[in-house]
Amino acid sequence: EEQVIYTVDEEWKGYGTWVANSDCTKLVGIEILKRDWQPLTSWEKFAEFYHTNPTCRLIKVDIETGELEVIHQDTAWLGHPIYRPFDDSTVGFCHEGPHDLVDARMWLVNEDGSNVRKIKEHAEGESCTHEFWIPDGSAMAYVSYFKGQTDRVIYKANPETLE
Fold first, then answer.
1. In sequence order, what DSSP letters do the residues of 44-66 get, joined into one string?
2. Which domains does the chain carry?
């Protein structure tokens, strides 16, 4: 039998992925203020949307009660929320947008909203994408490449030291 866990408030638009913690007791998601949202029907629209600096919020939802808590809100396009495995106190997310315009894609925040920190400042011409946690939570991995090059490298960063 299906059961409603959470309904997005009418002033917001649910966006992208929703990811549960390791115990499957809560999940994180991204919402965009509805008046800022627009459909992304092409790469041109994708780039245009980045420049609108939409109001976005990273939220957590208690799966049992449906209770919502805002972890982080910003006038920047946020995406890809993901709990650190076996450590609910750390949530990863990204600054979304065209790779050549986003200068620091990957971010971490404490679940209580404190200690917002970027994982990596991009080097000149570098794009980082497809961030994901190593399954034991020991590192955040990501794909890095440089403009005009076809080589891709997968790096990992320690969530405690950001090295």
1. HHHHHHHTT---EEEEEEETTT-
2. 12-124 (2.120.10.30)
